[in-house]
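Consortium newsletter contribution from the modelling node. Members have asked for a concrete example of what our holo predictions look like. Here is one, prepared for the fe (iii) ion complex that several groups have been discussing at recent meetings.
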Amino acid sequence: MTTLVRGARQLLTLRGPAGPRRGPALRELGLVPNGSVLVRGGVIVAAGPSRTVDRLTDLRRARIIEAAGKVVMPGFVDCHTHLVCGPPRLQDYERRIAGAGYSEIAAAGGGILFSVRAVRKLSARALEEQAHRTLAAMARHGTTTVEAKSGYGLDRTAEIKTLRVAGRFPRVIPTYLGAHIPPPEMDADRYIAWMADCMLPLVARRKLARFADVYCDAGAFTVEQARRYLRRAAEVGLGLKIHAEQFARTGAALLAVELGATSADHLEQAGEEEVAALARSETIAVLLPGSVFHLGLSRYAPARALIDAGAAVALATDHNPGTSPTFSMPMVLSLACTQMRMTPAEAVAAATINAAHAVGAASRTGSLEAGKQADLIVLDLADYRELPYYFGTNNVATTLIAGEVIA
Ligand code: NIG
Ligand code: FE
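And here is the predicted structure:
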């Protein structure tokens, strides 16, 4: 099947050098005025000026998607989510609005352990149905690739169940977040040792996940515990990710750099030392402003300092029932621009090509270039800057994944 996405007012190809974009390169979107994308067998054949691309097309046989007056760009790569997570935590939400803190909420039976109890009880089928609905909602908001962490199971059965559910969706990249918090039945050191001995090798051997992640924070795991866990994860061949500097400044971002982690995520409390270390490293800074917004906090990650120092920055929703119940990458872009002072161009590149690098998927997706999978969106907008500008609205008209219209 051949598809021609024709005549976009602005085609953002995000074409550029291999590797994540840094500094001024993060603002280069490969913008083609009046552009088209030709797709065959789910793969991009050509993306560029309509006058050349349209000529390559046998218009009698091709399906035409008219994009006149609109913006066409790569689908979003949501590179940090807790997709398989059970029900919403509405009591936590109301308690927080009433002024309760993290520990009060946990003491009242809320917090991460609420979700753990729920996920342990739910069947794989029920979790799969929920993930399916969430992915559909994300696709309507323009997301075409999703990273999905486990971490609401914590025991062997529930973690494997979670990773299998995530792995059933071709657009999902699973991450083992066994080290989310210590489970009720074990202390943190024993739990780390058990994961190092049993779970990490098992996850790698059965190819249940591509990455291992650890939540390094007060009430979760220390830097030393995270180091042990991640060293073992690297030994068994998993890529490394860290929830770093979210509530407490722990040194986790420096650990990410030390271990050559693929990404250090959150970074709300990161200071000059972390910014400088990340800028010198290959580790991508994944920023998650949705969780700051939903928690009603005001300290966002230092995006401007990170970008200006030369760090590779990506954006994601952090979709989860406790701190960021959103499906919307466009909302994340709005927050990135207004709260973290990223430019609209930087936010677009951070949410597409750099996010693809953050999940090791940049050879397949994240930009519109010949040979890549045709993951693209048509926006009912005349200028890409309107994407973050109109906040809390969804202007995605069409979402294509591997050339198929999904939403
Ligand atoms: O990324 N910080 C730890 N994990 C999640 C929150 C999990 C939850 O509250 O359920 C996060 O924000
Ligand atoms: Fe998270």
